[in-house]
Specification:
This protein is of the alpha+beta class and 148 residues long. It is built from three helices and seven strands, in the order E-H-H-E-E-E-E-E-E-H. Helix content is 26%, strand content 36%.
Length: 148
């Protein structure tokens, strides 16, 4: 039986929008606010940084872009600001690959580097929730308010 890597979260989602549109929803602060965060600062270039303020402003995610290849690939470090975070800024890495799939996009997501099972599990739940919201927003819909 193959072993499962418990330090990684993997997701694949079909989105009814072009890779160009989906990529913009992952990097443009105004579009990030439509599905993911209350506020965002992004500098999507290798070495550029981002800061994402969640709907509860106590939670601020941040990191640096490692690879930025519009509209097919985005790699960045990820973590949470705060001294007590089990996943501090820069501790993990997110890789997103976008591939045309008919009229839409297949988004492959890999979040790696977790050393804490609880953090990996809570991130997995969060990504699932927010990717459902992304699919609605990128397709031109309104995902509604972010319910905590």
């Amino acid at each position: 039986m193959p072993s499962v890597d418990t330090t990684v979260i993997e997701r694949e989602i079909k989105i009814n929008a072009t890779p160009e549109t989906v990529f913009s929803f992952l990097t443009d602060p105004a579009k990030l606010r439509k599905w993911f965060v209350a506020d965002a600062k992004t500098d999507p270039r290798p070495g550029g940084s981002f800061e994402l303020i969640m709907s509860d402003p106590e939670y601020v995610a941040a990191g640096k872009y490692v690879e930025v290849q519009p509209p097919t690939r985005l790699v960045f470090t990820w973590g949470w600001k705060g001294d007590d975070s089990p996943t501090p800024v820069g501790a993990t890495t997110v890789e997103i690959t976008l591939r045309p799939d008919g009229p839409g996009t297949l988004m492959r997501f890999v979040h790696s580097g977790f050393t804490n099972d609880k953090s990996r599990e809570s991130h997995g739940e969060g990504w699932t929730k927010y990717f459902n919201r992304l699919a609605i927003a990128a397709a031109g819909g309104d995902p509604g308010p972010d319910e905590l």
